[in-house]
């Protein structure tokens, strides 16, 4: 790696021309940004997630399986702590709430076969909009 932000794995360089900072990140919450790398005709997508130190997602499940590889930093959920190089699989019925560790941001490569579904009382109101944007 030339610098910490230039440590893009070789297999992702076809999607990431420079470093992670050169990508057109979309802010999805105060703590999380995402950039979609590709999507298939059935709605499955590959994306990068960038979580600020200490940042978290709301409790959620997915309408399909989710596969995650930690590329930088680390995060935890109800099951454990995941660091650079760890691979996590969550089935569509598994509820989780990822939280980045406080020491640095977390960047993950995520493949999801269906949209996320919030499970909290207020956040669930967003689910119809998420499903619509996933199609």
The computed structural class is mainly beta
Oligomer description: single chain
Helical stretch tally: 1
How is the largest sheet built, in terms of strand order?
1-2-3-10-5-8
Shape: globular
Major sheet details: 6 strands, antiparallel
Average pLDDT works out at: 83
Percentage of residues in helical conformation: under 10%
Query: Which value, in Å, is the CA radius of gyration?
Result: 14 Å
SSE pattern, N- to C-terminal? EEEEEEEEEEEH
Low-confidence stretches: none
Name some characteristics of this structure.
3-stranded antiparallel sheet; 6-stranded antiparallel sheet; 135 residues; 11 strands; mainly beta; single chain
Topology readout:
Blueprint: E1 26-27, E2 32-39, E3 45-51, E4 60-62, E5 66-72, E6 74-76, E7 81-83, E8 87-90, E9 99-100, E10 106-112, E11 116-118, H1 127-134
Antiparallel strand pairs: 1-2, 2-3, 3-10, 4-11, 5-8, 5-10, 6-7, 6-9
Structure write-up:
With 135 residues, the protein is mainly β. Helix content is 6%, strand content 36%. It contains one helix and eleven strands. It has one helix spanning 127-134; strands at residues 26-27, 32-39, 45-51, 60-62, 66-72, 74-76, 81-83, 87-90, 99-100, 106-112, 116-118. The chain has a six-stranded antiparallel sheet, with no helix packed on it. Strand 1 and strand 2 form a beta hairpin. The model has no long low-confidence stretch (mean pLDDT 83).
Summarize the structure.
The chain has 135 residues and is mainly beta.
